Amino acid sequence: MQRIGVFVCHCGSNIAATVDVKRVALAMLSENGVVFADDYQYMCSESGQLKIAQAVKEHNLTGLVICSCSPRMHEATFRKAAEKAGINPYMVEIANIREQCSWIHKDIEQATQKAIILARAAVAKVNLNSPLIAGKSPVKKRALVIGGGIAGIQTALDIADAGFEVDIVEKTPSIGGKMSQLDKTFPTLDCSACILTPKMVDCAAHEKITIFTYSEVENVSGFVGNFTVDIKKKARYVDSAKCTGCGLCQEKCPSKKALSEFNCGLSNRSAIYTPFAQAVPNVPVIDPLQCIKLKTGKCGLCEKVCAANAIDYTQKDEIITREYGAIVVATGFDVINLDNYDEYAYSQSKDVITSLELERIMNAAGPTKGHLERMSDGKAPKNIVFVQCVGSRCADNKGKSYCSKICCMYTAKHAMLIRDKYPDVNVSVFYIDVRTPGKNFDEFYRRAVEEYGVNYIKGQVGKVTPEPDGSLTVHGVDLIDGRQVKISADMVVLAAAIEPNASVRQLATQLTASIDTNNFLTEAHPKLRPVESPTAGVFLSGVCQGPKDIPETVSQAGAAAAKVIGLLAKNELTTNPCTAHSDELLCNGCSACANVCPYGAISYQDKEVNDHGIRETRRIAMVNTALCQGCGACTVTCPSGAMDLNGFSNKQIIAEVDAICR
Amino acid sequence: MPMNSTESFAPKIVAFCCNWCSYAGADLAGSSRLAYPADVKIIKVPCSCRVNPMFILRAFEKGADGVIICGCHPGDCHYSTGNYYARRRMTLLFSMLEYIGIEKDRVRVEWVSAAEAVKFSETMNSFVLQIKNLGENVRLGDLRCKS
Amino acid sequence: MALKYSYYPGCTLKNKAKSLDITARKCASALGFELEEIENWQCCGGVYPLGSDEIATKLSSVRALDYAKSKSQKLVTLCSACHHVIKRVNDDMKNVPDTRMRANNYLKLDTPYCGETQVLHYLEVLRDEIGFDNIAKAVKNPLKGVKIGAYYGCMLLRPSKIMEFDNPENPQIMEDFIKALGAQSVIFPYRNECCGGHVALKSPESAQKLSGKVTRSAEGFGADMLITACPLCLYNLNKNSQSDIPVYYFTELLAKALGIDSEE
Amino acid sequence: MQELKNRIKQLMEENVAQRALGWKKGEFGYDAQAAFFESTDELDDFVYNGFCGANLSKYMIEACKKEGRTIICLKPCDTYSFNQLLKEHRIQREKAYIIGVGCKGTLDISKIKANGIEGIVDIEGADMFSSENLLKIKTVYGDHELAYSDALLERCNCCKGKEHMIFDEIIGESADTVSADRFEQIEKIEQLTSIEKFEFFRNELSKCIRCNACRNACPACNCRKCVFDSDKFDSAQKANSDSFEEKMFHIIRAFHVAGRCTDCGECSRVCPQNIPLHLFNRKFIKDINMLYGDFSAGSNCEENCPLTSYSFDDAEPGKI
Amino acid sequence: MSNREEKVLQISGVNPRKCMKCGKCSASCPSYDEMDIKPHQFVSYVLNGRTKALAESKSVEKCLACFACVERCPRNVEPAKIIDAARQLNVRQRYGDTLSANDIPSLIDEDTPQQLLVSAFRKYKR
User: Fold this and answer.
1) CATH number of this structure's domain A334-499
2) Domains plus CATH for chain C?
3) C61 and C44 in contact (C-beta within 8 Å)?
4) For A577-599, what is the mean pLDDT?
5) For residues B70 and B112, is the Cβ–Cβ distance under 8 A?
6) If you measure CA to CA, which chain B residue comes closest to D311?
7) Which of A132, A217, B64, C48 could pair covalently with A577 via S-S, beta carbons 3.0-4.6 A apart?
């Protein structure tokens, strides 16, 4: 028989304003097993925890029920408090009377009644709890970073600097990501390549970092501290060990019609290519869809000119299996497809471009060698119009509901840079709001207006019409002036919304990390655990978690690294004791449970059992508690009820059902 | 069903929520103050695949008027595959309940992610309404109805 | 067996836009489908009633839709206004429970009408059921060298969520149609901007301003002529745009290309 | 039948197997029962006729605990259960010598009695291997005749097929007995209104006396200890007639054997209250076939049970 | 919110709170210059209790029902429905007739399509 203490938290007025906490405590006194019940202002506070310790001592408690906020919030707190007070931490159950009661109900009577029932269910459960001891599992001292943009690079460098091995898996032929495509960065107007390239080189040179470019994560299994990951290294057709990076092959390659991904399709590249001059590794790849040799068997020019003999047309995709203690997702973003926004004529005119395309046009290594030119006729534009919020802040199923966060600042940057370099060019910016929270951000935007004379117009653009003379008419509105505005422009730049890289959907499934309705990875807690995913051992870095600029990305990358370092620094992890176990007297050995176990945690042994005096050898299911994650799939599959789950046993759940339905 | 009896009838509704998605979704509904009727009482389970059909039958036997199971969206299960098994089990169980003449609207499975607070609250509101329209559960207490 | 459709001509096609009706029917039989005029059809009202509580103004459309349902046929329209009204009313009957319930309560049909009929514009029939490539094959007098601007106007395209006719900002169907006839299509940005026809009666100055923009844009891009599906647009562009650019119904050109005599 | 008996005798004498698992004649001509024959002498009582409906597969669990090998006689439909037990590791293949016995359908004594035939003393013509289609029934009130095919169990009218799924040798011919669609009854019930369905099942289930005959006969109900007998689920007091298990017994049992039930029909055959219990199991089979592709439990030993597998685009619960 | 405002919202089915005041409707409106109250202002007029002014505005008659604002509104607010609801308010309160059958002969020519008359009566007359 348990001796249960019930503690009802007021949570200031969060609970007490809607739930009559005293009545809840009083009601619990008549519940089976309850010997003590009390209420208190803040149970999670130090004095609240002290109260628990005192009650345990005075009333010889064996189990605790805390009626408070969600167990996701403070279950760990109360378990620790119980342990301190001398009770097994798994003898604690939380009745969630805040998120599930006081915060969603207004009627005090109703809320109080519901709180009593929730508490009753928790009491019924604790009556059947038994002490659990957590196990230990070792930690593989290596981290995987998925994505080699600035987020992945920074995370990898920080982890490696702490002395742990890191692998970076990057989908494209080079690390560098979106930042490598940028020309200048706000609000300091640093040259993007100048600050990124050294970090890329550091990564390549770091003895603790292994870079797998042109590679993808194929499969993930395991759990925190013990992940096993299959990495697919796509065939590069170039031997990285031999290649000297001389670039002759690219020069000689006769197939030069492919669109350069790096230049957003604004220029061409050869079939054998490195995406950009500073690529890391500086080893080209052969695009099999473009290569004449791979398509027709003829050509082979690159092989002939390669002095290092690095070309290998027979290379195949390769799967590498590696083990990791922690995984960081840093898959970044892409610009949305603009098909839903044809009113801006992006598909109808070459002179309507996205801001990322403008970055390439402004960049000295870009398609126009850094000269501001129209893509249609190479002429220098005289009137440029920027349109903000294209596809952001949309509630119409065409675009994204969120603010892409970086557009206001990069548009101010673009406007300023253009006005600086080409003072005779008129620049107008249509905006809905200018959002500039960030250090020196608003000052930066004001400089664009005040010092550089950028014409900011509050209002959205309705349509861009290409005119017979090759110009573009921008039909907008100036809401402050109360007039429709028509601007004849040579170039229109769209601040297209950003979205998580498409690969994240599948990756989230592989990692069992959850994603939100916009495909951003969900953090474990939006405020308190922003760089951890809800899946232990999986961390988030950069835009894959939500829109952010470079400084924020780098801070988050460092934070994720710190979390990884904290994890890898441990030699072993405490495992969840809520694992499955099978009753050897009831087990039929039928293998149904092993069929549904996602972790391969169930094996079978021929074991001699003593079933009420009958000794016989039986085939019995055995659970490896280091592998078991406690999902419970096996328990339902088991026809005889031999398989049960610690912490969520059949009897406990049924007791809760009974208590709720009573 | 006359309107007034629907109004005064407070159904007993048991909601099994998986720890990783739906329970978190319920928490978010709470912190977002998205109200749903107090008739819903949540039982936390690690995964929707932990829900044994016996729990559901048990709830009905003990007087529940509706049972809803919420889990991660298929493909997003914290344990990779749990909800796929749950989906098959519940599909068959619900079909059986309908087959033996239990109103199939008394049971529901809904996939609610940790981010879908609105969906959680809307789901619970609509489920409670659905159960109120059905009225009290009289059939599934004891199928044999022995005196 | 020839494809048969329930056909809703609408008031203008029986009067000022007779040639749209006649050429459409003749081309249909040449292309192997038949337009069976709905018995006792009533005027659609010309404008879709936007008020969410409007019922009476939607009933004539529902009757036509229900007629097509009873014959298990798709309903085909020609006039942009009729198409707009009937398509949207059909969407209400399918997706707006309140409208569906009240309209059915009023009409007291044998079985309630719940948006079962598929509403197609004649152009959609050409594109989706006949196929522009088949039309190209049937062309006897290719309109070689003619530069034609397709004027869509408003009502076929918007709101795209309901009309589902084509990309509302960059449509393709009429251009593909023009190409099928062997002519050259001229894309001009005002092809989906309003011509102002709706206010031609009481604000002719507005109608002049707006329709002028349309014709100037088309001429600027080198169009020799415009085609449209809407009698009101045709009227307005002819009368108010102060341009001499000829405007035809798309079916008139179709008839010409197919070598069909468009006289009655 | 004699051929079968002789062959068993021979196998035992040659020490191929130590015992046989077959049917023993009962008190009347129509109540043959499953039995172990430990010696050739005991084989005198061995019978194999239309009243040997009992599916012997489940007895193999017991046989596997015994020394040596056991000859087991399996009708075609029984082999499915045998396979299923093999798949679940409940029996060992090497412990069995399987004689697949031909089958022309098994008889339903209540169907015979339903023809107004009472006081039965003896029934002739029930031999499995004879091609005669006539039952001669001696009663205290005189003699009756009935076509063999008119007295078949429902399960034989919608037989899965007369092919043995597993065997060491086959003795005797089988005859096709299919005269009805297996899912016809299920479909009929599905057509009823909710209230009609409920009334139908309530009426049937209220006859249940919880004798557990269905559970005992069912080859899929092979748990060492049934959940209804352990206290793994119920936190409340056990086994009074009001208990949860009592009320939900048949639904839970059907769910426990879903995907494993071979539709052998033993549950309905042995029910003393004549409750058509197979209607539950067959509903699951029908749903599984429709939703997850045709599946026949026990047709082989490899295929995964539909409830321990899944596909990404399975139907959503409540939406079929 | 007064009766009239509620009525407009009910007829239009529009949720004015969804508007983020981007002005895309006004940027898209071909009748913008003819209107005294501009499309992006419609929601404010309803929310601020000035529906009467809206109903009496020129905009009611100037809307071309071209649905450009509906199509392009990033928030699904659909301003055209608001202005039409304001017009409906007039029509239903029986002072909205701005077209009489007697005017027609002077307004038409031999080519005027029936469609124009039909829709004009719907627009200008109860």
Assistant:
1) 3.50.50.60
2) 3-122 (1.20.1050.140), 132-258 (3.40.50.1860)
3) yes
4) 91
5) yes
6) B84
7) A132
pLDDT at site D236: 43
**Substitution target from C11, C20, C41, C50 for chain E, most E beta carbons within 10 A:** C50
Is A516 a residue whose pLDDT tops 60? yes
Residue E116 in contact with partner chain C when CB distance is under 8 A: yes
Say which CATH class A580-646 falls into: alpha beta
- Residue E46 belongs to domain spanning: 3-95
Q: How many domains are there within chain E?
A: 2
AA identity, residue C143: L
Average pLDDT value for chain A: 95
Band of the pLDDT at B5, cuts 50, 70, 90? very low
Would the pLDDT of A132 be above 50? yes
Residues 217-236 of D with CB under 8 A from A: 222-227, 230, 232-236
> Measured between beta carbons, which residues in chain B are less than 8 angstroms from residue D233?
52, 54, 58
Instruction: Check if the interface score ipTM surpasses 0.90.
Output: no
| For C191, nearest residue in chain A (alpha carbons) | A465
In whole angstroms, give the CA distance from residue A58 to residue C255: 99
Which chains does A contact via 3+ CB–CB distances below 8 A? B, C, D, E
pLDDT at D243: 58
Q: Percent of chain A, pLDDT > 70? A: 100
User: Is there a shared CATH topology between the A4-126 domain and the A580-646 domain?
Assistant: no
The verdict on E77 and E117 lying in the same domain is no
Chain A residues close to D230, C-beta within 8 Å: 586, 640-641
**B13-134 fold:** Rossmann fold (3.40.50)
* Co-location of E53 and E69 in the same domain: yes
Q: Which of B62, A470, E47, A398 is nearest to D233 (CA)?
A: B62
Q: Is the pLDDT of residue A74 over 80?
A: yes
- Mean pLDDT throughout A15-21? 96
Q: What is the DSSP letter of A103?
A: T
Locate A291 and state its tokens: 């290569």
Nearest CA distance, C168 vs chain A (angstrom): 8
Asked if E85 and E111 sit in the same domain, the reply is: no
Closest approach of chain E CAs to the CA of C225, in angstroms? 19
Which of D225, D233, D308 is facing A637, going by the closest CB pair?
Answer: D308
**Looking at the predicted structure, is the pLDDT value of residue A365 above 50?**
yes
Q: Where are the domains of chain A?
A: 4-126, 153-228+324-332+501-568, 248-305, 334-499, 580-646
Please name the residues in contact with E109: beta carbons below 8 A apart, sequence gap of 6 or more: C239
Query: Is the CB of residue E62 less than 8 Å away from at least one CB of chain A?
Result: no
Cβ contact, residue pair D224, A640, below 8 Å = yes
All residues of chain B having their beta carbon less than 8 Å from the beta carbon of residue D260 are none
User: With 90 as the cut, is the pLDDT of residue A294 above it?
Assistant: yes
Number of other residues whose CB lies within 10 A of the CB of residue A33: 18
Confidence of residue A290 (pLDDT cuts 50, 70, 90): very high
Sign of CA pseudo-dihedral D264, D270, D274, D275: negative
The highest-level CATH class for domain A4-126 is alpha beta
Mean pLDDT of C32-58: 93
3-state secondary structure of C124: helix
Q: Provide the Cα torsion D90, D93, D99, D102; round to 10°.
A: 60
List the structure tokens of C201: 């009666």
Residue D242 clears pLDDT 80, i.e. is over it: no
Distances (CA, A) of D32 to D26, D35, D49, D107: 5, 9, 8, 11
Closest approach of A483 to chain E, Cα-based (Å): 8
Same domain membership, residue E40 and residue E28: yes
Domain harbouring E17, CATH code: 1.10.1060.10
* Chain D residues 251-310 with a CB less than 8 Å from chain B: 251-252, 254-255, 258, 280, 283-284, 287-288, 291-292, 306-308, 310
